[in-house]
Amino acid sequence: MKFGFYMPVRLIQGNGCVREHGEVFGKMGKKAFIVTGKHSARANGALEDVLYALSEAQVEYEIFDEIMSNPTIEVVYRGAEKMKACGGDFVVGIGGGSPMDAAKAIALLYSQDIKEEDLFGGNYKDCLPPMVMIPTTAGTGSKVTQYAILTNDKKETKTSISSDLLFPSVSFLDPGYMRKMGRRTTIHTAIDALSHNVEGMISRRCTDLSDAMAKEGIRAFRDCAEALIQWDGETELSMEVREKLLYASTIGGMVIAHTGTTAVHSMGYELTYFHGTDHGRANGLLLAAFLKTAAGYMPEKVEEILHTMGVKTTEEAGKVLSRLLGPEPALTEEEIEKFAGISAGAKNIKNAPFELSKEEIVEIYRKSLNEE
Amino acid sequence: MKFGFYMPVRLIQGNGCVREHGEVFGKMGKKAFIVTGKHSARANGALEDVLYALSEAQVEYEIFDEIMSNPTIEVVYRGAEKMKACGGDFVVGIGGGSPMDAAKAIALLYSQDIKEEDLFGGNYKDCLPPMVMIPTTAGTGSKVTQYAILTNDKKETKTSISSDLLFPSVSFLDPGYMRKMGRRTTIHTAIDALSHNVEGMISRRCTDLSDAMAKEGIRAFRDCAEALIQWDGETELSMEVREKLLYASTIGGMVIAHTGTTAVHSMGYELTYFHGTDHGRANGLLLAAFLKTAAGYMPEKVEEILHTMGVKTTEEAGKVLSRLLGPEPALTEEEIEKFAGISAGAKNIKNAPFELSKEEIVEIYRKSLNEE
Predict the structure, then answer these.
(1) pTM for the whole thing?
(2) Those residues with Cβ within 8 angstroms of residue A9's Cβ, 6 or more apart along the chain or in another chain
(3) Which domains can be identified in chain B, with CATH numbers?
């Protein structure tokens, strides 16, 4: 058996939890450096709640709101420079995975000088300012992981900074911030959470405990799948479903904090890098074909995953995902060849307990994107 | 839904894990203060492994080996005095719940002056030395909790110090230390772990996540129950079972770190205080009758627990526990009256989502100990 575990993030959850916990911010220092994107944190009320809590705790703040989807290395260096210029005792990340990951990288770069070529090296000093995360999507695991994933132009993919120093101190989980989220983003992020739980079970680093958690996360997704399929995107999705998706994504994050992600993420990054495909969507497109391949290596584990998803075959899992995702343009054979080459060299693909050949990777891309 | 979570302990698990991780001790300072009992840590090899790891990391140490079962307030004050006299950068607790709980209390009392009347008050300064725990039984949750439970003569029961400051930094989980443990201790501690998982599900502080974990812990116990019943105590119990029991106890600890224990523990403490009944045994004697009473308040939850245990009724659960525990002398009506009075005033009984009347508590004692 394996059941090593490390999850130092304090999770505070519930409607209105940020406003109720000014003291959490107050304990971290006198000045907050807030990292977020241009729009969503303002639209969904998360930024307002943070500013309210900071004011209750008499904490000053500075806002850096320049984070784009799939944040670049450039923007996190720039954020760190700004934080150095204006000061800050702790970092608050508000948004989806992009602002939270960027907030972590900024905290790291603020605390110490790291050359760009050493950024992904993992060799950092233990002097980061504490971090508070406020997720406003229910997909990313960033609120509970030690990862910060950035666009890596040199490698033409996304690459993660991974260090236990990047665990946030506190994350606030309030499903209210997702109330107005549209259908596509809701579905893409939900599938990202599913993918974390599923990939976690097919990682060589999985443990009995991470598998038990992953199954709980998959069950939570399954409970929401039909409501998501039926949802027209015009009416508001029920808060019960929103909350359960946030639960699934939280567990998914705890799982990959232990297992890492594997082939689906490695392969999805290329779809995002070259086609701008939403991260969760990219994972969802690849997941069923990956499971089919994985079933050749570890049939019982895949069987367990399918059973937990409430389906019998990988084809049936693929149909559920297709109904959620809708159609996707095909890739050219040249693209497939190129993407397979890049993802075969990614570090997370090595987390799989079996070695995927380049031919198998090509085959997964082809089945996922070029077949009806 | 509820899924707040906080579990800052780093869990390192596996055969031989202490010897392999000298660096963990090395990072904590130059001198360790080891808290343990007189015999078992020497007999099961845990102390030797710790000394090996400390020597690898060139860390000095002092041993305080005076911890008895159900440690007294006196012994933890004495331990803290000894630590003040000889110095120490961190505390290492080795043993079952008693030495680990005592180690936490000693770390607390070493770090600050606390009067005896304030010991259970919860108002402590954040200046404790880091703690490393090495459990040598598979029952207590102490390796992953913020509790230190001491014998409280003033109240004629056991009372817990509870503070997030008492979470260990690191716990090493090596089932090898349980290899030679006898049948009674093995069973009593296993039932303690079961009780943590079950009580956690019947706590007003339970969450969806703690319930999911508790069910995993109950399943792990269930997988071992028949092997424990059949085991003659002469041959060695299989390491698979040992490992699974350690898993169940680890999860049980994570659960009660979030939920607290409830009535079974409150009521069991009196059996221990007045009759010296082993802690886990005391819980096991009371568990089925408590579930029967709880079923009147929350039938679905109790149903879920029984289903996870693999039994249909609370009576059937009681039979499994009886087969494990064997017979127990009855209590007098005077004792029952007295014990019920004390446990009705305990703080953990208030964690139950329903208020147990004194009559109900009396009834649980009577059914548990005075019926065939």
Answers:
(1) 0.97
(2) A143, A144, A167, A168, A169, A170, A171, B5, B6
(3) 10-177 (3.40.50.1970), 182-369 (1.20.1090.10)
